[in-house]
Write a structure and sequence with these properties.
393 residues; alpha/beta; Aspartate Aminotransferase, domain 1; Aspartate Aminotransferase, domain 2; five-stranded mixed sheet; binds pyridoxal-5'-phosphate
């Protein structure tokens, strides 16, 4: 071993994700007058080309912010103090979005979850049926909860709301799912979808996005939560200084423009298929690791294991943080750790964005080497299983 590191670190944190060289180069430009016509035209094209990514006809709003900013934008634009919202618990991200809502003056109704299963649509339906007076104004759903590696079923939750004949707004956090798995905002009846630049969109962190339905735009007229920076109403203009509530994030927009071109070249169906294939190779490896000695997928139900992030439990008595440290320091693979109640129990392999087969095999090799280094009981040959999967599919 040497302390001089060569080559690239393999980045498998579940955000930020790898930024393609094309995007980095696209940002390597001098600053410009962001109110001059060429840049205004480019900005407008970004707003337009984001719509097919969300699969919506409605407007998309862009903030110089991360995902937390998009969370606050979604809430502050549509809710009033004291409004109730329903938060099905899927993991740390549902918890944190709910806590933010609470701090803004909303009242949270929790649907408890065990962080190992997706949202139960029947529980949503039942809870909404009991809300005769319509006090619940929104359902907050995390499509892929990055803390747990679990994907929940958006159309099924929509169906549950419809079955209960409930008029709440349907808000979906697609931060870890947009441009990695299927998401159809309009067809699936989503009122607010939100995202951030540094996950499936392959950009640096710093752009938060909200996409809105007619119903959400209508709700913003009567919503009474204080808002200024986030206010959609102010931002519906081509006047650059107003639509960004100040200086536009010029270089992030150059990057986003390139990312949108790259997404269009590959096309959403192929992007979704690539994520599915690479995630399946990872799951083939994890299956082998789990075969002996007590490692496990955090997501109990195979169909709920997401294609953008895999959360893996170490056997009881072992520390997942050590896997993370060994993978990073000895084998140059950066992983995610367990968040909150999963800390120490779970490590996470992010697999969204600009990735291909050898990158996945490299990451799996680093993880398997870390497991071996630490003598964590696991089935040997995970990387071979991943290769077998990729060869056969
Ligand atoms: C990453 C992530 C967030 C938080 O995004 P930030 O940009 O870190 O604020 C929220 N929700 C999900 C599902 C995420 O994956």
């Amino acid at each position: 071993m040497t302390d001089v590191l060569r080559g690239r670190e393999f980045l498998h944190t579940p955000g930020p994700t790898n930024i393609p060289d094309r995007i980095l180069r696209a940002m390597h430009k001098a600053a410009v007058d962001f109110t001059a016509p060429p840049f205004v035209a480019m900005t407008r094209s970004c707003f337009e080309d984001l719509k097919p990514i969300f699969q919506t006809q409605g407007p998309v709003f862009m903030y110089a912010a991360n995902g937390h900013g998009a969370w606050e934008a979604a809430l502050s634009n549509t809710m009033s103090p004291g409004d109730h919202i329903l938060v099905p618990e899927t993991g740390n991200f549902s918890l944190k979005w709910g806590m933010m809502a609470e701090s803004l003056g909303l009242v949270i109704e929790h649907l408890p979850g065990d962080w190992r299963h997706g949202i139960d649509p029947e529980a949503v339906e039942q809870h909404l049926r009991e809300d005769d007076e319509g006090r619940i104004k929104a359902v907050l759903m995390i499509h892929i909860d990055t803390a747990t590696g679990i994907i929940s079923d958006v159309p099924a939750v929509r169906q549950a709301m419809d079955n209960a004949n409930h008029g709440a707004l349907f808000m979906v956090d697609t931060i870890a799912s947009l441009a990695t798995v299927e998401f159809q905002m309009d067809n699936w009846g989503v009122d607010v979808a939100l995202a951030a630049s540094q996950k499936g969109l392959m950009c640096p962190p710093g752009i938060g996005l909200t996409a809105c339905s007619e119903k959400a735009l209508h709700a913003t007229q009567s919503a009474r939560l204080p808002r200024n920076y986030w206010d959609w109403r102010e931002r519906m203009t081509d006047a650059q200084y107003i639509r960004f509530c100040g200086t536009a994030p010029i270089h992030l927009l150059y990057g986003l423009r390139e990312a949108l071109d790259m997404l269009a070249e590959e096309g959403l169906p192929r992007i979704v298929a690539r994520h599915e294939r690479l995630a399946s190779a990872i799951r083939a490896a994890v299956d082998v690791w789990c075969g002996e000695g007590g490692m496990a997928f955090n997501a109990v139900v195979p169909g709920q294991r997401s294609n953008s992030i895999t959360a893996i439990r170490v056997p009881p008595g072992y520390d997942a943080e050590e896997v993370r440290t060994a993978a990073r320091e000895r084998f140059q693979v950066a992983l995610g750790g367990g968040l909150e109640q999963l800390k120490g129990d779970v490590f996470r392999i992010g697999h969204m964005g600009d990735l291909n087969e050898p990158m996945i095999l490299g990451a799996l090799g680093g993880v398997e080497a870390a497991l071996q280094t630490l003598n964590i009981p696991h089935g040997r040959g995970g990387v071979t299983a991943a290769i077998d999967y990729l060869v056969a599919n």
